[in-house]
Amino acid sequence: MSRMTIAATAVCLAILAWCGLAPLAPAAEPAPLKVLFLGDNGHHRPRDRFVQLQPVLAKRGIELTYTDQVADLNAKTLAGYDALAIYANTETISPEQEQALLDYVASGKGFVPLHCASYCFLNSPKYIALVGAQFQRHGTGVFRTNIQRPDDPLMKGFRGFESWDETYVHTKHNEADRTVLETRTEGDREEPWTWVRTHGKGRVFYTAWGHDARTWSNPGFQNLVERGIRWAAGQDPASVPAFVDRPDMTAKRKDVKPFEYVSANIPFYPPSRQWGTVGEAIKKMQVPVDPAESMKHLVTPVGFQPKLFAAEPDIGKPLCMAWDERGRLWLAETVDYPNEMQPPGQGRDRIRICEDTDGDGRADKFTVFADKLSIPTSLTFARGGLIVHQAPVTLFLKDTNGDDVADERKVLLEGWGTRDTHAGPSNMHWGVDNWIYGIVGYSGFQGTVAGEQHRFSSGFYRFRPDGSKLEFLRSTNNNSWGVGISEEGILFGSTANGNPSEYLPVPNRYY
Prior knowledge:
Blueprint: H1 9-13, E1 17-18, E2 33-38, H2 46-58, E3 62-67, H3 75-78, E4 83-86, H4 95-106, E5 110-113, H5 125-131, E6 134-144, E7 146-147, E8 162-171, E9 178-186, E10 189-199, E11 202-207, H6 213-216, H7 219-232, H8 247-253, E12 261-263, E13 284-286, H9 291-296, E14 304-305, E15 318-323, E16 329-333, E17 349-355, E18 365-373, E19 378-382, E20 385-390, E21 393-398, E22 408-414, E23 425-430, E24 436-440, E25 445-449, E26 452-456, E27 459-463, E28 470-475, E29 480-485, E30 491-495, E31 502-504
Parallel strand pairs: 2-3, 2-4, 4-5, 5-11
Antiparallel strand pairs: 1-14, 6-8, 7-9, 9-10, 10-11, 12-13, 15-16, 16-17, 17-18, 19-20, 20-21, 21-22, 23-24, 24-27, 25-26, 27-28, 29-30, 30-31
């Protein structure tokens, strides 16, 4: 890495700017709407998706009612609703239910099939024609759709959003009375993605967005569905606030340059049989880009934008970081990681304090707090100083004279394994019990703490801030590195292979 940008992930979260949503002024408050939401018990988990959407739309005057009974597709039940939404993969529909649905829409009511609803009722060509197409195949990925009709009443003020989802491709297109509002780039063509249709006096709104919680929790998706419901039910979508997803970043995307790659020999880890087929070894690496260009490629939450806080040459190759109570960023910078661990006191790594002294959101003062370290993998503040994991030891560093340079260095714990430097201790967090929690990979720990012998491999641990006690809490699998603590004090973590999420409701203790 010849250039490192610290404008990503945790650093950005502290300095991201809220872009805001600009509401359109409706002519009048829209009338309340009642919508029947038909799901099933399939893998898309419609009830869970309903639970995500229902409270959002309830605040906007749209009452959703959930059912997983296809038998509710009858004239009597449907008559009580302004629109019907379907998010299901039910394969068959009876002739009576089919006719009730067609009559309901033709009479002037709204129909809102979402995502997998385009692969519902496979025995009904009339249903497929009503939706406007049928799902054929998909891949997956993070993407943004292309708005084809920004001036359409349903789309005014909506600039799209970005999410992970399934990349639907459709077949059996019914283009009669269909207007495509959004497309998704599929190779060298544009795949219809979101559209509207008319059927008799009724209206149909469909979007292929919506595989799982990642999209259903996205404010952009929620905004789009509300627009679709109101339009299908005969209301003016102008009553929906305009949704603007990072307008400045959207504009910048036009100038994003494709990454360039050069030939290189890089580490290659062939997967085992349980992971799939072994492919060709990767022999290329990305050419580094400067911070300004790098930020154009970042994917951020809706309504946020990244701003650069620090970059080379002021910093170099950050490995971990922490923010202090004064808003200063502390970085562990490494040269030795991963394969050149040095003897004690001879390391080339350091801890640097990055400070914004003029309040412009960018660091302008850089102070080396401690040097001659080798592969420090986690930082946390304690007892007026800094605790640092640096296998095989955990250090306590402190500045005693106020010059921001550590002049006290003490070993708190000793015994962290070093046979693999990317499987050591990391992610120290304060617990509600005033112990410090962390996680370690398969390099593990073997040593004596306060007269008590310990030996463990991958898993969660905790220790007292003064190093007077260490406790192993539970095993995890493989290499482990992520730690988070919920409001209830439950410990969560992540591992490298086969089990991305772990949690610790009850420690493994023996009495």
